[in-house]
Amino acid sequence: MPRLTTGAAAPKQTYAACSGCSLCLLVCPVWRHTRDLRYTPHGRAKALQHGATIADIAPSVSACTLCGACEPVCPENIGLVDMALELRRALPTSTITENLLTRMQTEKPRALVTKSAAATVLLPGMPLSWNQVLLARVRAALGDMGGIAVANDHGADIALALETGAAVPPQHIERFLAPLRQYKTLIVADGLLLRQLRAWLSDVKIVSLGAALSSRAPVRARLRAGDLYVIEPRAYHADYEKLVTHYDKLRAETGCAMNLDLQRIAIPTTVSSMPRRFGWETAADREQLLWLLKGRNVSRIVIENEEDRPAFERVCTIPIVHIAELMNDETLSAGKPS
Amino acid sequence: MDTAPSGTFGLCPVGPDALQGIRRQQTNPARWHGANWNEFATELGGLGVEVLESMAARGAFATDAGGTAYGLPHGVVIASSAVHISALLRTAQAYHVPVTVRGGGLTTEGESVAFGGVLLDMTGMSRVIKIDAAALTVRTQAGIFWHSLAEELRRENLDYLSAPLNLTSTVGGSLNVGGIDVNSPRLGCSADQAIALQVVTPTGEIVECSDTANPELFQRAILGYGQFGVITEATLKVRPYTPIRMHYFYYSRLRTAVEDLQMLDRNDASDYSGILTIMDSAVNLLVAFDSVERESAFQAQWQSRLRGHGELGFALRAAVRYALRPWKLPEAWYLWQRKRELFPEFRRPEYVRDGVMHDRTVVFSRAVWKFWGNRQMVIPDIATSAEKFVEAVERGNAVCRKYFPHYTLYCVGIRLRADHRPHYEMSCIPPDAEGWAYGCEFEPMIGTAVYSRDHLQSFKNAIYDIGVDMGASYYRFGGMMKGYIRRVFGDALVDRQLALKRAADPAMILNRDVIF
């Protein structure tokens, strides 16, 4: 049975190793909004170290946006995202998770992909699946000459289960993973799912959609000074050591600004996290977006995650484009790989 | 009615040989036991001050960065405004409830641990109020982390002057104790950056103070170890942001490196300078500059006078030295391993380009926590005049050698401001220092080893005894080290400060047991 934990090169520590440095606070969007230590990895770790129960910290566990920003900055190498997921699974089952589990157990399997001869499969995630026009642009921007399959079952229910703390039935996970094993490369839009897939499919190359698109020369050529490039935080932080270099080069090459703080951590927009998807904490989203934009001279916002578009539209009038929309139609029709 | 806090700690991670079978509840025998707590908390609630009494809140503050002092507050108050803090302190005076103020919690002697009473978490007040780019000042709430302040300033291409090389120090905490940076030999300590403060006195008055407005309170609040008020807002000097040009010189002798450090400081030869060591065998003098001009002037005039070597030159000399002393090979292996771990962190490509380091505090702070941080840390220190410093470092180093197989030293100078003499009274600035004070921190590398609290305390005492003997001072003389206060400062000064404290804080509620 696949483990419900993420994998990493170095063994990750648990909350017991927390030394209380508070570095996680500096990057935590929940702390930024609440200024309350209890709602941070530090607060959870120290509370558990000193006698609190999971029930005591339940509000903190639920409030976490799972952006993963805390994990790369943790000097003790604590698996902070895994710890948050584990705590969520230990919370009492909610109606949301019950409904989700019922659906998983009763749902009929769907054909996985639209094509089967490809070496690469794209798991577009919910927002792109709902926007077929943009999905077509994404495929074209990836240089798809028929070599990229698109998953029909892109693991949205598993991603939601991870986020809500539902215990996914093993057979459901296996049904999802089995067809993916035939591919050499997975391009994954959902950052939380990507993190989990790394643990489940250690033999498959897994890259985030943002990293895949921003690696394409025609895409890079269209970024410019004045752009604010908004990195999808979950995937970025899940693969921080590699991607920090990737995006640093991209920034140096194009002159664009990015949603990176001084620690080179992606300032998350948080709009795709569970509390936000259920319509909670919108004031926090607004505050976070305004902080992201503060003091920057931006002429265009380039997003990796389509869910960020309406969020930015609510707080500014700056033009917004998805990274796949950077390429014009001529370039897309040429479809030349970089 | 007395109420002891419910809940217990896990097993004490320090001192298994000294405290076998004893479940450690708290480490301060003078803890406050909760007289009239419920009435106090109820009254505060009526004033709109929320007191958090859950284990999730209290447990989060059970220890500080040192991890050797443990205590549970009866309740936690997250600071939200000066008015709010005023209400808390007035009520605490009436009910005689101790209030312990915590910024980043980076103390190591339990100074920010509440042994009963209220823990006031100042990070609740951590917003920038106003940046004045023209006047090069910022007004900020004092619970802000220096790093959060830097993030805000950078959006306007500004930076603070000097702050601890630790991202999670708070402005208020640093103003209370000093705050040392590698540019302190030139710009002074963080506490000397403050232009004006808003302070809530122990009896709850909200007072604006500066060199000209309420100067006595300003003098007491700056470097005051939280005894004379809670700093709620601060106006600080800022400057344009510049990346820095780093140079490293390596020495095998502490004395030589310290002498060279002081030579650079005396001659204003660099913008940044400090010493960081691996044991006393690999001593790194770091020198850095804000501009090409300053760097060029150093290279033309001062670099040739330094007796340190580049990385390769030092490595070759070390190889010869250890080849002739094979019994010291384990030490050589440790140095090599440590170098392999540390150096890449200081050369990460996203921060260092073409010999220029961007966001130095991020680089240093992340390295500090990654390679020097631990769940238990003791970092005794000595602060002396320039003249006494070499001897203090050498004597402290001998103590480290005696107590621990591996350790590190961090030495840096502090440029003093003659007009701030009154601020320095009974602080980390030794009374005989002129021009510069120098500090050295002695940190054992504890790692996964287990030492008893007695062993750690003996080590600290041995370092602090040197300070008493030499007429020095310390960065950390509060909390568990407060026994040294009278020994090092003398009765007359301490009694005078105590009288001021009693007048300002009649119930002695604010940061009780930190100093007094």
Characterization of the model:
The complex is a heterodimer of chains A (338) and B (516). Chain A has 338 residues and is α/β, with parallel strands linked by helices. Chain A has three domains: 15-90, Alpha-helical ferredoxin (Fumarate Reductase Iron-sulfur Protein, Chain B, domain 2); 120-213; 216-334, Rossmann fold (3-Layer(aba) Sandwich), CATH 3.40.50. Chain A has helices at residues 23-27, 29-34, 41-49, 58-63, 70-73, 80-90, 95-106, 125-129, 132-141, 156-164, 170-177, 191-200, 209-214, 217-220, 233-238, 240-254, 274-277, 282-293, 308-315, 329-334, and strands at 120-123, 148-150, 185-188, 205-208, 227-230, 257-258, 300-303, 320-322. A four-stranded parallel sheet of chain A has the order 2-1-3-4. In chain A, strands 6-5-7-8 form a four-stranded parallel sheet, with helices on one face. In chain A, helix 7 packs antiparallel against helix 10 (156-164). Chain B is of the alpha+beta class and 516 residues long. Chain B has three domains: 37-123, 2-Layer Sandwich (Uridine Diphospho-n-acetylenolpyruvylglucosamine Reductase, domain 2), CATH 3.30.43.10; 128-240, Uridine Diphospho-n-acetylenolpyruvylglucosamine Reductase, domain 3; 244-479, Vanillyl-alcohol Oxidase, Chain A, domain 3. Chain B contains 17 helices and 17 strands. Chain B has helices at residues 37-46, 55-59, 82-95, 146-154, 171-177, 184-187, 215-221, 254-266, 292-301, 311-323, 329-345, 360-372, 389-403, 421-424, 453-470, 485-489, 491-504, and strands at 75-78, 99-102, 118-121, 128-132, 137-141, 158-160, 194-200, 206-210, 230-240, 244-251, 272-278, 282-289, 352-353, 356-357, 381-385, 407-415, 436-444. In chain B, strand 7 (194-200) and strand 8 (206-210) form a beta hairpin. In chain B, helix 1 (37-46) packs antiparallel against helix 3 (82-95), helix 8 (254-266) runs antiparallel to helix 13 (389-403) and helix 13 (389-403) packs antiparallel against helix 15 (453-470). The longest helix of chain B has 18 residues, at 453-470. Chains A and B meet through helix 1, helix 3 and helix 16 of A and helix 2, helix 4 and helix 12 of B.
